[in-house]
Write a structure and sequence with these properties.
CATH architecture of the largest domain: Beta Barrel
Strand content: 35-45%
Radius of gyration: 21 Å
CATH superfamily of the largest domain: Nucleic acid-binding proteins
CATH class of the largest domain: Mainly Beta
CATH topology of the largest domain: OB fold (Dihydrolipoamide Acetyltransferase, E2P)
Number of domains: 2
Structural class: mainly beta
């Protein structure tokens, strides 16, 4: 027995991308996404610190798309910063102008508001979420334990 017969169907019509996964000719998964070339949420960039807003405790970063990105102090992973001191209260205590930082976009452009970024990078899969800077992997509750499974 060779297991399940898996087929992937892809459709791109009427401004939508649709993907269906069939297992033995039955629908197992369906994904649909509206075509939008400007969507950057979830993208990961190596950004350059341009300047600071000390009033809002934020840094503005250049990611190379023609629009700066907003990084608030609450979205900094302190362990990943080279200039970390014990009690940093100012965003400029973490970075200097010109520093490079890895960020992930968490909110897209909304009207006149800039895209929002976070250093708390998350790579999400079907059954787990990997957070490399936090040194953590979150396993989905959908996985049923089986005594034959490998434990790591």
């Amino acid at each position: 027995m060779y297991g399940l017969k898996r087929t992937i169907l892809v459709d791109n019509k009427y401004g939508w991308n649709r993907i269906a996964v069939l297992e033995d000719n039955s629908i197992a998964e369906v994904y649909a996404e509206q075509n939008n070339t400007n969507k950057i949420v979830g993208n990961i960039y190596l950004a350059k610190v341009i300047n600071f807003d000390s009033r809002n405790q934020a840094a503005f970063l250049d990611i190379g798309i023609g629009v700066n990105v907003y990084l608030g102090i609450e979205d900094i992973v302190r362990e990943a910063c080279e200039k970390t001191k014990k009690n940093n209260k100012c965003i400029s205590d973490y970075f200097s102008q010109g520093d490079k930082v890895i960020i992930q976009i968490t909110k897209d452009i909304q009207g006149v508001k800039l895209p929002k970024a976070s250093m708390n990078i998350k790579l999400s899969g079907r059954y787990l979420v990997f957070k490399p800077l936090k040194k953590m992997i979150i396993i989905s509750n959908k996985i049923k334990y089986n005594k034959n499974m490998a434990v790591f």
